[in-house]
Amino acid sequence: MDFTPEIKEKLNQLQEKYTAMGQDMASYLDGLLYADFLTYWDYIHLDTLLSLQSPKTPFPDEEIFIMYHQITELYFKLSLHECRQIAEHENLNVDFITARVKRINAYFNALTTSFEVMVDGMEKEQFLKFRMSLLPASGFQSGQYRMIEICATDFIRLVDKSKREELSTAPIEQQFEHIYWKFGATELASGKQTLTLKQFIKKYADQFLQLAKDRVQTNFAALYHQLQANGSDVSALAEELRKLDLYVNVEWPLAHYKSAVRYLEKDPVDVAATGGTNWQKYLPPRFQKRIFYPFLWTDEQMDEWGKGWVLSVLKTLKNRD
């Protein structure tokens, strides 16, 4: 076989690479010679991935429930991968952050459009039975989702709306005591934290607090203001941030709301969620008014935040049933 100039050049580059590391290139070539060809299933650990479903009951639809939540967490991991690239980039520019936020929006678009699997993809009777074996676990306990929120905005935007003004200059630790999702897993009658919330805080509180401190200057809202102050054209970034705001704070919660209404709404008393969360007040965006980027919306848009979606969801599901 004749070596082309291109192959000889690549061999020379490899020799330089290994010499710089004090390594023998010939040894690495031996390793390449003896190694098996890579297969798709080994590369993505397919057999392991397909073995990670362990239902707690004999109801077939429980596997659907498990797999969809696993898919969700993988999309969250993809989103956090983009968040880290943005926060850790040494010479961040508006094109880089815009492209990465656009990727996150693509992930959330896939999530929100696929959530019909959870709304219509299981038999209601099966779900209401196997869900009782899951207590007190809840999708509320997704730590990755909370991390995405922390990366996306100034931490004060995650504080319950009744406390935002009062705690606007308070330390992050104090703001964390009033983060919005804690009120979604607090018993209405007693005011006590549910076991679901206690478990969640015990596992993730330290990670959340450290991430919040690390992202004070590198969350998306802070970076937007920095780029704008530097004279960058942030119009495309603003558009992607508005999309992200709607995906995370309207579309995704309402996808869950549709599912909750489908499976848990029951006259005269609604069925409680597995984690004891107050889903009727916690999920609808019009109650939470959680908005990452208020500086990108008009007062009228914020006043109407999520209202139309909630009404249309309720009407659709009522008509179906």
UniProtKB/TrEMBL annotation:
This is Tryptophan 2,3-dioxygenase family protein. It comes from Pedobacter punctiformis.
